[in-house]
Amino acid sequence: MSEKILFVDDDRNLLAACERNFRRLFPLETAEGGEAGLAKIAERGPFAVVVADRQMPGMDGVQFLAEVRKRAPDTVRMMLTGNADLEVAIKVVNEGNIFRFLTKPCPHEVLAKAIEDARAQHRLIIAERELLNRTLSGSIKVLTDILSSVDPKSFGRAEKLRSLITEVTERVPIENAWEVHLAAMLGPVAYVTLPPETVMKARSAQPLSKAEEDLMIRVPEIASRLLAHIPRLEGVAKIVRYQRKNFDGTGFPQDDVKGNDIPAGARLLRIMADFAELTSAGNAAAAALVQLAGRHGRYDPALLAVVSARFGGPPRAAEPAKASTSLTVNDLKVGMVLASDVYTKDGVLVLAAGHRINEMTLESIKNFNYVSGVKEPIVIEGAEK
Asked: For 5-127, which CATH superfamily applies?
């Protein structure tokens, strides 16, 4: 882990003194002025700690540290100043969110101790972020594994939807595109909270009671509430909540949000979910896009134009058939991709084609096989090794 220190000051003599005093204690670099400091961060970063002078020509220390905060939020920021004015100190803390505010002349021992404390703070920031990332990754994996086992149809649809979204986001910059992908995968999680008979009736287009209709309408709200409890998924939860909101403001949820105030991810998910539904029903891509264009007020026109440009051209050549292998349940391994649906011997769908087998779904297949038997052979993508 990098724990380099960057000193930024317009005084060359002070920078030279810092190098003499601290180079043997810390991996240290210097920059003469704010602009040079930002260039050094871009070229030589990341830095664990940045120490900046308050008064520098051009970009002063307050502006510099505020910019460092935007570009390198994990970097711990400190300031040295010859002016200990209270108003200046408040401004520095508010705009630069600094760790320490030290006055000149600062004794060598005091500055060295402050730098060591800042490095410890940086280690803590990195450790907490890594823990959060691992926790987030683990939570997402558990949710997708549960969904793939409990509701394989929803999971299969979600995987196909994510694949379509990827084709758009790879070509059009969408802020935090990863949130859209997670929203597509985790949005159906609310279905596991609904009565199975209600979900089956909705999927087979059978008439629903008023209570059942209300439940189906509230699926995005239920999923959003569940996801909002997971750290760093607040944006994903908001996309899920607004995934059925029309661009003109109608639809669910019934609030004043409309147009570009709807999260961009939700606007894209709204288009792609309906496009996927139409093409899955047998419509050609071009015909599906014509239907979407005729639903005035429902979609973001700019995003719909992007989707139309991506999928509305000449029909793409069919992909060559992938090699496949037929296996028994006992031959299955984590990481294999199903080339066909997996059913029990009495006709219950266990997993849909296209699913990549994970630990939970492999265990699910084995359990179904033990209790009621699974139809064999099971076809997977790729040649057997």
From this structure: Response regulator (3.40.50.2300)
